[in-house]
Every structure is written in C-alpha cells, then in structure tokens.
Amino acid sequence: MKAKRKYFSGLNALRFLAAFLVIFNHIEQYQFWAGWSNIWGHSVINQLGHLPVSFFFVLSGFLITYLLLTEIDNSGSIDLSHFYWKRFIRIWPVYLLVALVALFIVPEFQDASFGSLPSPNRPVVYFSIFSFMPNILRISFPTLIGGNQLWSVGVEEQFYLFWPLLLMLFRRRILVFLIGFAFCKILIQITLIAMEVPDAALWFKQLVQLYVLFPVEQMAIGGIGAWIWFKESEHCKRVIANPFLLLFTVLVVYSLFDKLETLGLISLTQGIIFMQFIALVITSKKVHRLLDNRLLSYLGEISYGIYMWHTLIIFFVISILKAIGVDSHWSLYMITPVLTLVVAHVSYQLLEKPILAFRNVKINNLIPLRKKYASL
C-alpha cells in the first residue's frame, strides 16, 4: 500500500507568524543603519530575528524529509529532477528579483538615507548571490540593504541540494543517519569553536562563523520528527507533543543558555524545542481550530514573499520618511507591516502563483519536446 502525502494542520499559520516577526527585528536593524534611535542589539529584538529563522529550518527539515520518505516508500527512489525543479520555481524567481533590486536599484537611493553603509558593488557580493551562496555575505558583507535576509534562503537551498541524495544513500538506516548527521555536525562545530583562540587567523574565524551559520542540525532534528510521523509511532508522537515536556525543555535551555551558547549547542537545543512545538501544533485539535482558517492559511501561503520583500519595504519607507522630514518610529512600524503584506500578496498573485502552476511539470517530459524543436 502506497503512503499518501499528508497535510499537517496549523503549519501555514506558523509560517506566517514566523515571517511576520522577523519584520520587527529588521525594522530596528535598519533604523540603526539609518542613524535613527533604535533598540537594535536588545536581546528580545535579536531573538525576533533568530528564533523565527531557526523555526523555518526545523520546519523545512520536517516537511521535506516527510515528503522524501513518502516518495521513497512509494517508488523506492526519488525523482531528483522533479524535486529540484519544484524547489527552483518556488524559490528562485522571487530570490533573483529581490537580489536584483537590492544590487542595482537600492544603491541609487542609498546615500540619501543610509550613506554610511558601503556600496554592494564588489565581486564577493555578486558571487555570493548569483552562485546561490548568500550565507557567505553574513561574514563578508552583512550590510546588503534589502538582501541581508537572503542568507537563510541560501542555507535552505544548499540543504535541498544534498538532502535527497543522503536520504537515498542511507534509506535503509534513515533514523540512524539523521541522528548521526546531527551529532557529527555539532561535534565538528564544538571542535571548531574550541580551536577559535583570540589570535586565530581571520580566515579561520570566518570559517567557524560560516559553519555555525549553516545550522543543518536543525533540519536533521526536523527530519527525525518526520521519520517518527512517517512511521506512525504513536508512543513517540505523544511523548514529543507533550506540552509539559516542551515547557520543561524550554526552562532547561533558558537556565543553561550561556553554557550552551559557549559550547555551540544553542542551535541544536532550539531545534529540539521547535520540533516539540511543531509536534504539539500538528497533534492538537484545539490548535487546529484556532489556526486553520482561510485568512491565516493564505497568509502562510504568501509567507515566503513576506520574508523576502520586507527588508526592501523597510528601506524605501525609511527613505521616504527621511525625504519628507518625518523621524517617526511609529510611522515606520505602522506602514511597514501593512505595506509588506500588500506587496507579498501582489507578488504571490502576479509572480509566484503563475510560475507555481508549472511545479508539477515533469522535467523528463520536457526533454523530447526540446529535441523536437531543436531539429526544426
């Protein structure tokens, strides 16, 4: 009997909430860059940026692994061309459009309101973005206005590139692989952090930072959750989705936060917490009634656009407010979220949705068509 793809209730709403929270983190960051008074660097503001992104990583690991496990169970393999095609048309069009605006339009207006920041006109920026490795920018050029959020999209795409290959390779021992993968990633991370002495070479410090900012252990934690749900392990589901266990885990991590951060274990523990949270959401009918409505479901569908467009919106709103002589945080906070939702809606309807209509096209079916027209 073939396994069926499963819809997990409540997750669309969580996508929206995570993407929406990041807006407020970047509002403070861009006020700092613009020279306005701000609370950038405050622990709460920092977590509004870090935690939603970690949640996205865990959620991606959960959903993609479950999808791939289903395909392996049904056919014994993975249609890699179709998998990559679906990821390509979902991510690349908006990614490239945002990147082009950030690289070639923003600099034309940057000096008027963000003049102290360097221009992105340098080879490392172009290489990082167009090779789909924008996470390199986090250590080489972190002030890319309108595009500093691209790093996490690059991490996810790099994860998508190798994950189906690894699952196929270890398809007979998937749970062992998932646990081992997370363990090895963290073990290497702990070793690199321990070797990072104050007088270490700059290239080594950047290597450690780049490795830490590649939190694939969080995807692996999501993958472990996907394996449990795919295997229909009811006992494990009840344990993971237990709200008291989730509360206990949060309290332990909070009390040991400094030690865990020093050891480089924060990303792993956050991944565990978010997987517990996802498990609680998808198993609770009360949560489903709260989150599964038409509005939140739609906002979840356009959450990618919310995440991708909001930094450009913040930049242009600040630029306009400065041009008309308004130095108002409240105006920025009121205009930016609403305008981001509008732009994300337009982007989804006019750009993303029409392109997504081709996501189920089989790449193999296009090859005879290409040969046919090539002979004309």
Structure report:
The chain has 376 residues and is mainly α. Helices cover 78% and strands 0% of the residues. It has helices at residues 11-34, 43-75, 80-114, 123-130, 137-140, 150-169, 174-195, 202-212, 216-230, 234-240, 243-255, 257-263, 266-283, 285-291, 294-301, 303-323, 329-356, 363-374. Helix 1 runs antiparallel to helix 2 (43-75). The longest helix is centred in the first third of the chain and has 35 residues, at 80-114. Mean pLDDT is 89; it is low at 367-376.
Q: What keywords describe this structure?
A:
376 residues; 18 helices; disordered C terminus; 78% helix; mainly alpha
Mean pLDDT: 89
> How many strands, what sense, and barrel or not for the largest sheet?
none
Parts with pLDDT < 50 across at least 5 consecutive residues: 367-376
Fraction of residues in helix: over 70%
The structure class reads mainly alpha
Shape: globular
Percent range for β-strand residues: under 5%
Total number of β-strand segments? 0
Distance between the termini: 45 Å
From the alpha-carbon coordinates, what is the Rg to the nearest angstrom?
22 Å
Q: What is the number of helical segments per DSSP (H or I, 4+ residues)?
A: 18
Order of helices and strands: HHHHHHHHHHHHHHHHHH
